[in-house]
Amino acid sequence: MKISGIGVFIAWLITMVLGYVGLGTYFYEMFEGMDPSMLSVGPVVVFAVFALASMVVTVIWARNLGSDRPAAEVPSGRRRFLVGGAALTGGVIGVGAATAGRMSGWFRTTLPMMGETSEADSTSDSPHPSWKGSRIVSRKPLGSTGFMVSDISIGTGRLMGHSDPEALFREALDRGVNYIDTSPDYAGAKSETAIGNVLKDRNREELFVVTKWCTSDGHVRHGSDPETYLAALDDSLSRLQTDYVDLIHVHACDSVERLLDPNMMKAFDMAKEQGKVRFLGVSTHTPNLEEVAGAAIDSGKFDVMMLAYHHGTWPKQQDIIDRAAENGMGIVAMKTLKGAKHRGMMEFQNEETSYTQAAFKWVNSNPAVSCLVISFFETAHLDEYLYASGKSLTEADVAVLDKYDELIAGTHCFASCGDCLGSCPESVPINDVLRHRMYFEGYGDEKEAMRLYARLDKQADRCVSCSAPCTGACPQDIDIKGRMLGAHERLTLVA
Ligand code: SF4
Ligand code: SF4
Questions:
Q1: How many CA atoms lie within 13 A of 156 on its CB side?
Q2: Domain-by-domain residue ranges, the chain?
Q3: Nearest partner of 159 among 193, 129, 203, 126, judged by Cα
Q4: 112 lines ligand 2 (CB under 6 A)
Q5: Given ligand 1 and candidates 419, 421, 423, 424, which is best to mutate, with the most ligand atoms within 8 Å of its CB?
Q6: Domain 129-394 falls in which CATH fold?
Q7: Residue 492 CA, ligand 1 centroid: distance in Å
Q8: Which of 156, 261, 393, 493 could tie 182 with a disulfide, CB 3.0–4.6 Å?
Q9: Probe target for ligand 1 pocket from 419, 427, 430, 483, with the most ligand atoms within 8 Å of CB
Q10: What is the mean pLDDT of residues 256-269?
Q11: Pairwise CA distance, residues 241 & 295, whole Å
């Protein structure tokens, strides 16, 4: 069979495109948290077939190189082997780059935001006596749902980290928390089960229970038939021991396609008609946040939006919040502790406020925000967090937040940023390196930070002999080279 170099090139080009749309999309959705059993393997199989075919045609092409020339001009077997090997390597690298390109947004933005999910929100070392027995004292309307929700509400993603999660949850309800955020994929659905064991003895109408379109293994994939969505909801209802949930979110939504999946909409309408759910919501913190949030608002289908929101927020996000609120959507804030680097904040604590309380008051001072959701996983969270309920932001709070910002000034690399990446000729993932340094220093999670750093393709050792063209590339005035060298020193295992 006669195969030309152009033919080989076209074969690899097609494989790269399939790597992007097939394999890349498969990995993207897997990392994004989709239930693995629902991922579409068809495009991956097509990709695999083309990848194999490209390899075969490359080998045939290399073997036949020069076969149409006089015998004296035919390249040696070694030369054909080397040319074929180079073509194969180039093709594989191209396919790998195309696949990684599909996931770049996830690596750049979603992964860091997921990191912030596990905020190191340990409680104060020295809780003030006045915090003891704190209760919810303020409720705000959740958009046009008509429900008044506790301004500080419980996220249950880490509930199972408590030695007696049901007791902690029961106590939170007793103290007035009435908005409960859960999901089947929190602790393999154990969180929903624990909540259900408490809910069954409560006046259900006084509580606003929120879950997600998920199974215990991840999100229900867009395009799944309505029955699959409904089965996931039924499983949640069974674990929660209730006939209905008040709200169901499209969880960690990263694309308009998933947001507006007609099958999800159909399932929602059916469930609503059957009295199994009352409202539809979306939670999002992805590279496409602006697009997804905009589409959710414009669609008019969503009652609630859950967004990362903290002091010193991204200005465009404020516009999104305002527009959503104007359209009657309830806004629920999450990740309110701005990276949670408040371990070093205890020195600023006084009897009036703690960093967490100041941060919560700042979030709740926005009239467009209905409530904030924060993970409760220590008993002491009840006293410290709920003390901020109904309290206005004071000058002392602003001073604490300013001090926090001073503490992180020139060091806090924003999770959704990447403005400096183009300035590094070595393509070192500056934001990832600095984020791992933050885990090490701010979260006290040294082992995990070093593990993550070790997994980076390129590390900050490249900065040592670099002339630092990244200087001045950070709008936050981070001394990139200096911070990178410090990161490498801290995060590298020395034998
Ligand atoms: S100092 Fe480091 S981050 Fe800056 S340009 Fe050089 S290699 Fe890139
Ligand atoms: S160093 Fe600055 S520009 Fe670069 S990702 Fe971090 S915050 Fe953004």
A1: 34
A2: 5-103, 129-394, 421-491
A3: 193
A4: no
A5: 424
A6: TIM Barrel (3.20.20)
A7: 17
A8: 156
A9: 430
A10: 96
A11: 33
Q: Please give the share of the chain, as a percent, with pLDDT higher than 90.
A: 46
**Mutation to probe ligand 2, out of 108, 413, 470, 483 (largest number of atoms < 8 A from CB):** 413
pLDDT number for residue 347: 52
Residue 418 CB less than 6 A away from ligand 2: yes
Residues 400-424 have pLDDT tens digits of 888 888 877 777 776 556 789 899 9
* Spacing, Cα 415 to ligand 2 middle (Å): 9
- 141: alpha, beta or left, given left = phi > 0 and alpha = psi -120 to 50? beta
Strands (E), 262-368: 277-284, 304-308, 330-334
Give the residue carrying structure tokens 């154990």: 190
Question: In 3D, which of 376, 380, 388 has the Cα closest to residue 155?
Answer: 376
What is the whole-number distance in angstroms between the Cα of residue 419 and the centre of ligand 2?
6
Helix (H) or strand (E) holding 153: strand 152-155
Give the predicted TM-score (pTM) of the model.
Answer: 0.70
